[in-house]
């Protein structure tokens, strides 16, 4: 019995010296422990999830957990008492592994067997279960299992846990199903975490300063596989953010378009720079969304989501109701009273647009509204070039010929065509005789001499 205890102790000490603490964990009881085993996956191993065509290249899968207890008569007579747990294998597969562990004990009866079990699970389990790439991740209700993309990945081809009699399932086989989290997300997250741990321990050359740095001090662009040290990338990101180039936080390699994630940017820049980056990135994203506008109040400028088939927009911050076409207070079904500059800009944008862009503008503003804007813009442009507004009533007045003393056709107010000042009804021409007036002696300014003679009116120099 003393020899058996010594063999057990020696085996435990040997395992502790071979494996790290995150792999082999000895319990407080000398004869108990557990082993966390990540399988050695072949290069270019891939996962594919049911219902999704995209494949995911992975290097790590969540570990098996072999929990064991060594009885008093181990290894002379009895095998270790154990359970085998896994997140991603179905119970039939785990049961097959448990049976194989029993067979290995029988082949090595009387000898310590834990190391043999560990090596089998780590190096041979994939082949034993006939698991190949790409590995299909399948979900059936609350039961999740895996198979090859072209069939079953185990010797029990076409058999699922639901179809297997309980007598064929080993009670030592335990499936760790987490119903609160998606299995696919768990597998990808675990692979990412393990990959990052390995990357952090590598020595790598920075593509900017060409210094050799530890992976933990470097930034890796996954799409292009380029690596740069954190110090160089922090300076690069900070300069781009201060210049407002938040869309340019990509790999510095020429012609490379791999972009940095917000998490990578946050890790390398200060709080102020990241806050500016976050704000500019949000604004840039909103600017690219056709159903988002900004509150026209200069003290607010909050983003506003547009409702379909209506011009009404209500700012969620200041509650200002406005027309998103003209950016003025909401005017119901009345036409927008836009500035001539705004109408011209919208008209030019529409006339120069492609057929698809025109269709989008017609859908956004309404085809009738667009046509009316085009017509009204031409009318307003003509009025701006050929007419002036009466200074009293605002009526548009066109001057075809005659002197610069004008009479409004609407309100009959006299006014000067040059300076648009209203003229007294008693002596409207006094404005042109007054030496202090900016329009002194300009009554016929802009007229041909023959036209002036036809007017039959000349200012007497003696009167001046």
From TrEMBL:
GO terms for biological process: protein ubiquitination; regulation of canonical Wnt signaling pathway. InterPro entries: E3_UB_ligase_RBR, IBR_dom, Rcat_RBR_RNF14, RNF14_RING-HC_Zfn, RWD_dom, TRIAD_supradom, UBQ-conjugating_enzyme/RWD, Znf_RING. Residues 149-162 have a biased composition (Polar residues). Pathway: Protein modification; protein ubiquitination. Residues 10-128 form the RWD domain. GO terms for cellular component: cytoplasm; nucleus. It is found in: Cytoplasm; Nucleus. Its main location: cytoplasm. It catalyses: [E2 ubiquitin-conjugating enzyme]-S-ubiquitinyl-L-cysteine + [acceptor protein]-L-lysine = [E2 ubiquitin-conjugating enzyme]-L-cysteine + [acceptor protein]-N(6)-ubiquitinyl-L-lysine. Its EC number is 2.3.2.31. This is E3 ubiquitin-protein ligase RNF14.
